[in-house]
Design a protein that fits this description.
four-stranded parallel beta sheet, Rossmann fold, ABC_Transporter_SBP, Vit_B12_bind_prot, globular, 288 residues, alpha/beta, 2 domains
Length: 288
């Protein structure tokens, strides 16, 4: 059912292989009519100069502002398969973990050409840029941005990897109370900033927690992501639980979820902001 293609990308003297799965109708010419089924895919395509080749996308694809003018063919509720067919795409870029499995299966069975975006670590953004460049005919710009991304991520790691660890509770959501474990993208960001995720060893990737769990974990800092949404996080009155070190020392910080949670180059902007804020908390705690 699938052909497996490997793109060998030369970076200086280093050869990197990025493997992607395509349907049997995979083409060797650059795609000109692309349906991008995730906001981060849209961002990356615009980054490399392929934004004008997108004919449709999904809800929440809101960056850059030109993306707001692209027709929508679905969202968290699923895809409009008939509308996708009417657009006659020569490539559909799918986020396997963000699109319903049954919708993906339908697209495959209809013989559409699919490629999958599946970054499972923060280094993977560079590989995806190269993949998208190869698929769209924008290899040069993609390679330039991939190198810049890798260099900036390396700089952040070097800056914070030897700092004194600070324990963090990442409040992914408040009702129900949720966080992240070590298998997640967000955990890798926390690590990059030289911090420790107090729920790293939880058996669930996105565990639902009780307040008692937080009290026992004793985080020194509570991070609260904020996103541009019609439904903001319900506010927790943390002052009721002064036995938690972060509450006792008033160590709370907000981060931009629209940057931190997306698999795109802009994540680095959000990551640097988060690392700087964690460093300020670290210095504050040292003085106390």
């Amino acid at each position: 059912m699938f052909k497996r293609l490997t793109f060998l990308l030369l970076v200086g003297f280093v050869t990197q292989a990025y493997t992607a799965e395509f349907s049997v109708k995979a083409k060797t010419v650059p795609a000109q009519r692309i349906i991008a089924l995730a906001p981060h895919i849209v961002e990356s395509l615009f980054d490399i100069g392929a934004g004008g080749q997108i004919v449709a996308t999904v809800d929440y694809a809101d960056y850059p502002k030109q993306a707001l003018d692209i027709p929508r063919v679905g969202g968290y509720y699923g895809l409009q398969i008939e509308k996708i067919l009417q657009l006659n795409p020569d490539l559909v870029l799918v986020w396997r973990n963000g699109n319903k499995a049954e919708d993906i299966a339908k697209l495959e069975n209809l013989g559409l050409t699919l490629a999958f975006s599946d970054p499972d670590n923060i280094d993977g953004v560079a590989s995806e840029l190269r993949l998208f460049g190869a698929l769209t005919g924008h290899e040069q710009q993609a390679e330039k941005l991939a190198l810049e991304y890798t260099q900036e991520l390396s700089r952040l790691r070097q800056t914070y990897q030897h700092q004194t660890p600070i324990s963090v509770f990442y409040q992914l959501w408040s009702e129900p109370l949720m966080s992240v474990n070590k298998n997640t993208w967000i955990h890798q960001l926390i690590q990059t900033c030289g911090a420790t995720n107090v729920f790293a060893d939880n058996s669930t990737d996105y565990p639902q927690l009780s307040m008692e769990n937080i009290i026992v974990a004793k985080p020194q800092l509570i991070i609260m992501p904020q996103e541009n949404s019609e439904k903001p996080q319900p506010v927790i009155d943390w002052q009721q639980w002064s036995m938690i070190p972060a509450v006792k020392h008033n160590q709370f910080m907000k981060v931009d979820a629209d940057l931190i949670h997306r698999f795109s180059r802009r994540m680095l902007t959000g990551l640097e902001d988060m690392c700087q804020k964690i460093e300020r908390s670290r210095q504050t705690l040292v003085r106390q």
